[in-house]
Structure formats: C-alpha cells, structure tokens
Q: What sequence folds into this?
C-alpha cells in the first residue's frame, strides 16, 4: 500500500461522468431531431407528389 | 427496429458499465476514487480509434469505388470520432487536475490527441464547405487517409517520447499489469462504449442516406 492515498475528489468524478452524459445525451437528441426533420420533409414531398 | 434494439442494448450496457465502475471495481490504491474516471476516459479513446479506423476504411473504399455508401460511412464515423475524442480530452483534463495538478500540459500524448481532434474537426469543416458531392467525397477521403497517420502517433507517443501521461496499460506490448476487477470494469465499459458507437453510427448513416435522398436506392 502506498504511504499516502489521494483524497477522493468525488467532485471531479461526477464532473467527468456528468460531462460524458451531457455529450452523449446531447448527440443522441441531435440525431433524433435531425432524423425526425428529414423524415417529415420526405413525407411532405411524397404527399405533395401524390 | 434493429437500430432501436441496438440502442436499448447500448443503454443497458452503459448501465452495467456504471454499475461495475462504481459498485464492483475497487477503490484504486494510489489515486483513490478519482481513478474511476478511467472507465470513461480509456473506452472513449479506444472507441475514437475504431471510429477513425472506419474513416480510413470508408475513405479508401470511396476513392477506389466512388460508392456513396463508403463516403457516408467515413463522414458518419468521423463525426463520432470527434465526439469520442472530445469526451476523451475533457475527461482526461478533469482527471489530470487532481492527479497531475493541472488541467492541461503540452505532453506528447495530450498534444497528439488534440491534433487528432483538430484534424478530424477540419475534416468535418471541409465537408461542410464543399457543395458538390463527388468533390466533397474525394477531398474528404484524402484528409481521412492522411489523418489516420496520427492514430499510431497518439497511441505510441507515450513510448516514443518522455511523457507525463502514463504508458499504455492495455493494447501495449507487455501483459497488462491491471488488477482483474479493474480490468473487468474496463472491459465492460469498453464493450458498452463500442455498442453505443455502433448504435450512433447506424443512426448517423441512416440520416446521411436520408440527406442524400438515397433511402430507396
């Protein structure tokens, strides 16, 4: 065992996990919104052509 | 439908990753609990390597065949590679502050990772700047191939130069010195990140297909 162990620094741990959650969650929402927009535009085009 | 199932699987794997990172992996002997950032940081860069490897594959495939599917693969993987590299840099910086005493240092590993991030951000900007699809694909493929040269530089930088960053403990030439529970937690999170990447990639490629108007092609 090392003589001296570092303090826990939970704040840094939660900051890192929080950042990753925001980054991945934000990207997931971006993909969902973009996909919805493109699909509705496509349906609009198909409706207009019919 | 298959993509949605993949999403659920990735979500469950991420929950399992959190459970092993906080509930199963022990408190590390020297760094204490702050070492748990490793279960985010290392899988992120390994996933980024995978993404940029696919950019290389897609770029070569596009130049060889001019098939749009290759270009879509490269573009989608590049976007994800930038995302995962960004997460690597930020989580590494957060980990660096309590362990090294600084958010950032111009160490070989950190600098080469920042260059990797900038090269592929440039790749995405280039794609946004060229309207003509064939020219865009061709230019981007060249950057995608040249940029891949930086991947081994990032990985071996800690071996080639004196660096503050620790040497590779996995994917290195010697057997890994990591204790079994820590290695298990790392592996579970690596699998979870890979599933998340595959899910994001499937969705991003689908969007690229819709964008190209190639859904029925």
A:
């Amino acid at each position: 065992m090392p003589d001296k162990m570092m303090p826990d620094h939970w704040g840094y741990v939660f900051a890192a996990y929080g950042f990753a959650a925001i980054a991945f969650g934000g990207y997931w929402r971006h993909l969902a919104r973009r996909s919805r927009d493109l699909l509705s535009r496509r349906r609009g085009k198909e409706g207009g052509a019919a | 439908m298959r993509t949605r199932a993949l999403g659920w699987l990735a979500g469950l794997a991420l929950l399992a990753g959190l459970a092993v990172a906080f509930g199963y992996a022990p408190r590390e002997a020297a760094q204490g609990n702050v070492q748990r950032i490793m279960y985010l940081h290392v899988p992120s860069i390994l996933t980024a390597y995978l993404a940029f490897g696919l950019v290389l594959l897609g770029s070569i495939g596009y130049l060889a065949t001019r098939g749009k599917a290759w270009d879509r693969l490269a573009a989608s993987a590049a976007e994800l590679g930038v995302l995962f590299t960004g997460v690597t840099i930020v989580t590494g910086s957060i980990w660096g502050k309590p362990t090294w005493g600084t958010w950032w240092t111009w160490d070989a590993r950190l600098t080469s990772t920042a260059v990797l991030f900038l090269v592929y951000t440039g790749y995405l900007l280039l794609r946004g700047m060229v309207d003509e699809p064939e020219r865009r694909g061709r230019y981007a493929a060249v950057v995608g191939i040249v940029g891949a040269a930086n991947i081994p530089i990032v990985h071996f930088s800690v071996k080639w130069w004196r660096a503050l960053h620790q040497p590779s403990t996995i994917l290195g030439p010697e057997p890994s010195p990591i204790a079994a529970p820590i290695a298990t937690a790392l592996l579970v999170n690596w699998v979870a990140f890979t599933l998340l990447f595959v899910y994001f990639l499937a969705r991003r490629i689908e969007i690229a297909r819709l964008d190209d108007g190639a859904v029925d092609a």
In short: The longest helix of chain B spans residues 68-100. Chain B is about 75% helix and 0% strand. Residues 56 and 145 of chain B are 5 Å apart (CA to CA).
